[in-house]
Design brief:
The protein is an alpha/beta fold. The protein has helices at about 1-15, 35-50, 70-80, 110-115, 120-130, 170-180, 190-195, 205-210, 240, 245-280, 290-295, 300-310, 315-320, and strands at about 25-30, 55-60, 85, 135-140, 145-150, 165, 180-185, 200-205, 220-230, 230-235, 285. It has a five-stranded mixed beta sheet, sandwiched between helices. Strands 8-5-9-11 form a four-stranded mixed beta sheet. It has a two-stranded parallel ribbon with strand order 6-7.
Length: about 325
């Protein structure tokens, strides 16, 4: 009897030491097949299984099937979903440090943005996000938004008098007003017709979106102002991550960082192809050699923002001083 019980106990121990110990995570992604982030999240799942020896597996649910982005962010915070690929914009209302990336012209370029987030600025932001329950493991590219209109925009003076469609946020409307333009918030679905009929003179977005939604068909110039560079993250529930051993944490973070680099490569290829396509269609692309006049024009915008959010001053100074 004792021998039989010992065999049963040994068998149970074997089961617990293998499949029973595997932890299966659910991951949220809003994008569909063909998008760089979808490929990157699939790569992340593969790498997690590989680097953890199968102790952690990840099922990625694409196309937002687990809910809208705001809902999914909240679900990751409370642990109902384990991982998400999120834009930092919607995280700002719950983690003020994430609003750094929404300041116009805060970054000089996409590489500069990554240098800021992979340095002290990112450490501060990441710690605040982790405190809110959503720990960033790696940063991914979501492009840079630039102006497009019926003329080139080389300096802030070129915006003066123009009606520019922007999202309905105080920072973005203030950005246009600071350059002498007329901010024209409207639903994104209305922009194509508004550009075509002259209701607005211009709008702003990244190259892939400019091409995919057809705005290149009703404008003539795309100017590389890169005024908004809002990245995305591969984020995990803080409690879930902290419960892992040090080795497992290292493995999961390494998987996210490798997947993020893969995403950045795919994004760069797609963005460059979109640029070539719109140029082939007749769009004149203007490089802006010196963005400092635009950054200088944001002085009042920043001061107003920092007056209302004085504890953000250090983050702003870190971003501005990062080479």
């Amino acid at each position: 009897m004792n021998f039989t019980m010992s065999l049963i106990a040994a068998g149970a121990a074997v089961l617990l030491g293998t499949g029973a110990m595997a932890d299966n995570w659910r991951a949220w992604n809003i994008h569909n097949d063909g998008h760089p982030n979808t490929a990157a999240m699939d790569r992340f799942a593969e790498l997690v299984a590989e680097k953890t020896g199968g102790e952690i597996t990840v099922d990625v649910f694409h196309g937002g099937v687990l809910g809208s982005q705001p809902d999914a962010i909240e679900q990751v915070r409370i642990g109902a979903i384990d991982v998400g690929n999120f834009n930092l914009g919607p995280i700002g209302p719950m983690v003020k440090e994430a609003n750094l990336v929404s300041l116009p012209f805060i970054f000089k370029s996409v590489p500069h943005m990554f240098r800021v987030l992979e340095g002290e600025g990112g450490e501060i932001m990441g710690a605040a996000m982790a405190e809110a329950g959503i720990l960033p493991l790696a940063w991914v590219d979501a492009g840079a938004r630039s102006f497009y209109a019926q003329k080139a925009i080389n300096t802030p003076a070129d915006v003066e008098g123009l009606k520019i469609r922007v999202k309905t946020t105080d920072l973005y409307t203030s950005m246009i007003s600071a350059m002498g333009g007329n901010p024209s918030p409207m639903a994104f679905s209305e922009v194509q017709q508004a550009l075509k009929t002259g209701v607005v003179d211009g709008a702003e977005n990244n190259f892939p979106s400019f091409k995919s939604v057809g705005h290149y068909e009703v404008t003539t110039h795309y100017s590389l102002s890169e005024h908004l560079i809002i990245p995305e993250c591969i984020c995990v529930n803080t409690t879930k991550f902290n419960a892992l051993s040090g080795d497992m944490q290292d493995a999961v973070r390494a998987a996210a960082e490798e997947a993020a680099l893969y995403q950045r490569e795919l994004w760069a290829v797609g963005s460059e192809q979109a640029r070539k396509d719109v140029e082939a269609a007749g769009i004149v692309v203007t490089e802006i050699a010196d963005k400092s006049p635009f950054q200088d024009a944001m002085g009042a915008v920043y001061e107003e923002y920092l007056a209302a959010n004085p504890d953000m001053r250090k983050l702003v100074e870190i971003a501005q001083s990062t080479e």
